[in-house]
Design the sequence.
């Protein structure tokens, strides 16, 4: 759909603890063997990793898109994402 990389779920929502996820065109199961896994934290961690990797290759440009879920989420705050957004604002990204 016009993106070079996809990490997420299809449709409007998914289970927060055992989600139906895809990395590009391959279904993945990141929750296997990870007690306490949470989708919101996983999505934030994956976005941070992607932006860092992208910035390492192309330091002057970065782009990331996330969904705005309408379903209630039972997840801890993604503190790492807050720090990453603040870092990018400080650097004018």
Sequence:
């Amino acid at each position: 759909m016009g993106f070079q990389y996809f990490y997420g779920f299809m449709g409007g929502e998914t289970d927060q603890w055992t989600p139906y996820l895809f990395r590009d065109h391959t279904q993945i199961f990141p929750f296997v063997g990870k007690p306490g896994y949470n989708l919101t934290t996983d999505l934030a961690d994956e976005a941070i990793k992607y932006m860092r990797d992208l910035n390492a290759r192309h330091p002057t440009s970065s782009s990331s898109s996330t969904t705005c879920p309408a379903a209630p989420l039972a997840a801890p705050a993604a503190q790492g994402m807050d720090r990453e957004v603040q870092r990018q604002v400080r650097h004018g990204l």
In short: The chain has two helices and three strands. Helices lie at 39-57, 79-90.
